[in-house]
Write a structure and sequence with these properties.
- There is one protein chain.
- The two termini are 20 Å apart.
- This protein is an alpha+beta fold and 93 residues long.
- It has a two-stranded antiparallel sheet with strand order 1-2.
- It has one domain.
- The radius of gyration is 13 Å and the shape is globular.
- The protein contains 4 helices and 2 strands, in the order ααααββ.
């Protein structure tokens, strides 16, 4: 479990940064499709600037699932208070 960016609106802890609205859909698509590759490509500087607290956890996830297929289930994906909270499970195919 990891959080996404915390810069998705004027009430967000990091205020608003349009780059968050570009990055989070890429990460959400990766979670929905069981694709670990985008998490391996997530740059530390970009994650830091967008207050993505889950970068390290996602990279561990990606390393664990590398070269494995996953079936993804979305339990929750929303951004209350300007922070994106995705809750997904991956099950091996």
């Amino acid at each position: 479990m990891a959080d996404g960016s915390a810069r998705r609106g004027p009430k967000a802890p990091g205020y608003e940064d349009p780059r968050a609205l570009d990055l989070d859909p890429v990460l959400e698509d990766a979670l929905r499709t069981g694709d670990p590759e985008p998490f391996l490509k997530l740059e530390p500087d970009q994650a830091h600037a967008l207050l993505v607290g889950g970068r390290a956890a996602w990279q561990v996830l990606a390393g664990a699932w590398e070269d494995r297929a996953a079936r993804a289930t979305c339990h929750y994906s929303a951004d209350p208070f300007g922070v994106w909270y995705p809750v997904f499970t991956w099950t091996p195919n």
